[in-house]
Amino acid sequence: MAVSDAVPQFSKAKSFSKASSGDGQDVSLTNLSAFSSGPGIKSGFEVAAIVAVAVILIGGAELALRLFKVPLYIMPPPSAIATALFTEFPLILPHLGYTLVELGGGFAIGACIGLVLAALITQFPFAEKIIAPYILLLVTTPMLALVPLLILRFGFGYTPRIIAVALAAGPMVMINAATGFRRVDNAKIALARSYGASTLQIFWKIRAPMALPMILVGLMIGAIFGLLTAVGAEMVGGGFGLGNRLTTYSSMIQMPQFFAVVLVLSILGILIYVLFFLIGKKWASWEA
Question: Which of 209, 213, 184 is nearest to 287 (CA)?
């Protein structure tokens, strides 16, 4: 019997981007329904339930605070916080911009250094023995403790805050990226070496793509840690930023405005999470 040399063709219905469900339907990993436990109707019900719980919590807090006549300087009701956010937002907006500049600059520097160090220690084990103690020192040291020293050296401008954010974000990115670079199937690397692939080609074609989910997790954690560090540095010293607004409003016992800034920071943190979730859904959905 003659053996055919034709290249086998695979139908799109059985591509590697899909998995077969129990009822014989194909479920795309890039589809949100693949991550839910039921059809779209149930997903809509879950969203409605989340909204209902939020309404109950906010309404209950409003009712309880007004019923027990809790003073505004102790805990303002949600309506007072919303009013303060609306009225004070033109004053808060410039400080939000200052915080975003600090976060963006420090995070970019820290993430780049963290990724480079992660690639270095995974390719050269000897380098890990040298770098690891210092990374551990940075992880265990509160960055806010270094802010006064940085202010004494660099003044009250952007520089000490950006450095603090970079020192906070960099180790988180490095640790997660290094973990991702190591979590690679050795069989793939052996196969690539058998075809003559160089160490650099193996890193860019195998290690980096397979590590992308962990890299995104590290970037998300680093960004959140950077935001917290930026706000803390603004509270320690300086006349601008959301952290400065927190210090100013608390010293003047303007608690509705204080919690309005806290709400802005919470929304900013949620946006950071959503951003990296969407990036992961776009570029690393195969990990699911």
Answer: 213
